[in-house]
UniProtKB/TrEMBL annotation:
Coiled coil: none
Domain spans labelled Cyclic nucleotide-binding: 85-187
Record CDD domains: CAP_ED
InterPro entries noted in UniProt: cNMP-bd_dom, cNMP-bd_dom_sf, Encap_f2b, RmlC-like_jellyroll, SrpI-like
Protein name per Swiss-Prot or TrEMBL: Family 2B encapsulin nanocompartment shell protein
Pfam family, one: cNMP_binding
Matches recorded under PROSITE patterns: CNMP_BINDING_3
Length: 462
């Protein structure tokens, strides 16, 4: 067949043309705002020791529960040491007291205890949320706090057999474990140590958990009184942060590197994407690692429960009341920030948008909300709950800092090394890719978290 074309076809012409190529793209790359916001401290020896003024630490202010084979919820006996006067109690006594708890269910709006009622039962919330309310100075309703999973009330009144100082009302359906006052009295009658510790607690002779050892001072005096002598006591065993790491071995065949290395360097393209994956893993570990992850290092007094589930301006204001000294950044899942935006729109208070790190970010009270898809959901992204973190940043501000080694052999980025491991008999060159990092919270009030946040609530604005 005779070709009736009068010019060269595009298909044939493309055989002589060179395509313009991009470097390899990767959908999993995120802005990693946390890594960009953290002030990084170069660690010389691989260990970062945080020296602090002596602090009276008790625990996490939570009593852990579990479900046995038939689904009945039980108290973990060892966690009853969250009660100050049971810290040194025998395990057998704790097991006996744990067995005295019975399970009760409650519904939304149900009053669990009334203000002024005898505090004859200790309540431990297994699942659900409730609010503590009391009558204010002028007769108005005053919200004290919202409590959630693992929290308990009211230890002081239960121990002293005093009336309840507030009312507790359920915000959601849930389950609780309760113990009668008689169970504690029976243990105290048999153990003189527990009885003495209870008496000290009832008399107020105990340090508030989280309080620092006092420094004796005098002020406002006249004349020539004797001035107090004092010293600032330090922790005997300050916490040390060791460098953790993310690693992999990158393999590149020499045939690929030799023959297909232009115009894009194959080894460099492979290493660039591997570095991105290492940095993504680094950010996830800094947030969620069970030992040093920021979400797992929030002290008990710095945790706030979402009152209505959805993240509201009131909730973020509660966080700001916890980290009120130079707050730096909120950090939350993108869906959580979207849910917060909806709540602001519903109230007619749209948050201000500010430009940080080259991107427009929502802010609240001037504090930016950093999105990160590494923030986890409990129970799934669609119907589960998540958290919002608030941090103060910087070593000079006694805040949150990132840690990395000051120098590493074969370093290609700060704290990240690419070491040639040689070529094997199959002609494959291996490179050890290692990122060293950690993070530290210098003082307890540098960080706070909003827990049990729901993101599935939408509103009709029509």
């Amino acid at each position: 067949m005779v070709n009736d074309r009068m010019s060269l076809s595009p298909d044939a012409a493309r055989q002589l043309a060179t395509a313009t190529k991009t470097t390899p793209q990767m959908r999993g790359i995120t802005p990693r705002y946390l890594l960009r916001a953290l002030p990084w401290v170069d660690v010389e020896s691989g260990v970062y020791r945080v020296n602090r003024r002596r602090t009276f630490v008790l625990g996490d202010d939570r009593i852990t529960t579990y479900a046995d084979n038939d689904g009945t919820h039980r108290i973990v006996p060892g966690d009853l040491r969250e009660m100050p006067y049971l810290r040194d109690a025998d395990e057998a006594l704790l097991t006996e007291l744990a067995g005295a708890f019975t399970e009760v269910s409650f519904e939304t709006g149900q009053v669990l205890v009334q203000s002024g009622d005898p505090a004859d039962r200790l309540w431990v919330i297994v699942r659900g949320r409730a609010e503590k309310r009391m009558t204010g100075r002028y007769g108005e309703e005053a919200l004290i706090e919202v409590i959630g999973d693992g929290q308990f009330f009211d230890l002081g009144s239960w121990t002293r057999s005093e009336p309840m100082p507030y009312r507790v009302q359920a915000l959601t359906p849930g389950v609780a474990l309760v113990a009668e006052r008689g169970a504690l009295a029976a243990l105290a009658d048999r153990d003189a140590g527990v009885r003495a510790a209870m008496d000290d607690y009832a008399a107020g002779n105990h340090m508030v958990p989280g309080a620092e050892a006092p420094v004796e001072l005098a002020s406002g005096h006249v004349g020539e009184p004797d001035l107090p002598g004092t010293f600032v006591d330090y922790e005997d065993a300050p916490r040390e942060y060791h460098m953790t790491l993310a690693q992999t071995v990158l393999r590149v065949h020499t045939r690929v590197a030799d023959l297909y290395n232009g115009p894009i360097d194959q080894t460099r393209a492979q290493s660039n994407l591997t570095v991105q994956a290492l940095r993504e893993r680094q950010e996830a570990a800094l947030l969620n690692h069970p030992e040093f992850g920021l979400f797992n290092n929030v002290p008990a007094g710095q945790r706030v429960q979402a009152r209505t589930g959805s993240p509201t301006p009131d909730d973020l204001d509660e966080l700001l009341a916890k980290v009120w000294k130079q707050p730096g950044y909120f950090l939350a899942h993108p869906r959580t920030i979207a849910a917060f935006g909806r709540e602001c729109t519903r109230r007619g208070v749209p948050p201000v948008v500010d430009s940080r790190f080259g991107s427009p970010l929502l802010t609240w009270r001037g504090v930016p909300l950093l999105p990160s898809d590494k923030v986890r959901f409990n129970g799934g992204v669609g119907s589960g709950t998540t958290e919002i973190l608030l941090m103060r940043m910087g070593e000079a501000e006694q805040g949150v800092v990132g840690l990395r080694p000051s120098s590493v052999q074969d370093e290609i980025e700060p704290g990240l090394a690419m070491r040639n491991m040689g070529t094997d008999q199959k002609g494959i060159t291996s490179y050890l890719m290692t990122a060293y990092f950690n993070t530290a919270v210098l003082v307890e009030d540098a960080i706070a978290v909003l827990q049990n946040v729901e993101v599935s609530n939408y509103h009709d604005y029509s």
